[in-house]
Design brief:
Blueprint (H helix, E strand, L loop, with lengths): L3 E6 L4 H4 L13 H16 L6 E4 L3 H13 L7 E3 L16 H8 L1 H9 L11 H21 L4 E5 L1 H11 L4 H4 L10 E5 L5 E5 L4
Parallel strand pairs: 1-4, 2-3, 2-4
Antiparallel strand pairs: 1-5, 5-6
Helix pairs in contact: 2-3, 4-5, 6-7
GO molecular function: phosphoglycerate mutase activity
Function: Catalyzes the interconversion of 2-phosphoglycerate and 3-phosphoglycerate.
Enzyme class: isomerase
Length: about 210
């Protein structure tokens, strides 16, 4: 039984490139982001992997990334489940602001706290703790059971929603998870044990 789970953050978006807080805004992929998605699909295929079902968020940049990956892998007929539980963290009043402009307005220290603390949320937005509270129950109820049944599952989502899942899989504390970077377009592939813990993290570069 494979119990295979692959997590992929969407490719670079227009607002990533412009250094803007994106959150729940629907923005497209850059040319680099599209290339990253193609590379992720090629990497997964070259590793001999395949998937039975895919999950993604309600946001187009993750959906577009997933579509490109599945096309590269010739898996366009597998079921795709979209849910806003996998959306990026909501940055509230910071959404659409340049990160340097936000620092000028609120100060370097305050913006750093909003971005990198676990449980302090920006005005009108979500903290990482809030994102975990939204994403993790969905993972436990909808994604994890499929993996444990032996289905091979691909999830294309966002830095903070994936960080919420990685926090549990890699057993991070609230202090270490905020330092765990998840790069755009680079698959993280786990093989789970029967008790839902990580049995192996696959090295796709080998």
């Amino acid at each position: 039984m494979d119990r295979l789970l692959a997590l992929v953050r969407h490719g670079q978006s227009d607002w990533n490139l412009k250094n803007l807080f994106t959150g729940w805004e629907n923005v497209g992929l850059t040319e680099k982001g599209i290339a990253e998605a193609h590379a992720a699909g090629k990497m997964l295929k070259a590793a001999g992997l395949t998937f039975d079902v895919a999950f993604t968020s309600a946001l187009t940049r993750a959906q577009h990334t997933l579509d490109i990956i599945l096309d590269e892998m010739a898996l366009t007929s597998i079921p795709i489940i979209r849910d806003e539980a996998l959306n990026e963290r909501d940055y509230g009043d910071l959404t659409g602001l340049n990160k340097d402009d936000a620092r000028a307005k609120w100060g370097e220290e305050q913006v750093h706290i909003w971005r990198r603390s676990y449980d302090v949320s920006p005005p009108g937005g979500e903290s990482l703790k809030d994102t975990v509270a939204r994403t993790l129950p969905y993972y436990v109820s909808e994604i994890q059971p499929r993996v444990l049944r032996g289905e091979r599952v691909l999830v294309a989502a966002h830095g903070n929603s994936l960080r919420s899942i990685v926090m549990v899989l890699e057993r991070h504390s609230r202090d270490t998870i905020v330092k765990r970077e998840i790069a755009t377009g680079e698959p993280i592939v786990y093989r789970l044990a029967a008790d839902s813990t990580v049995a192996e993290t696959l090295d796709l570069t080998a």
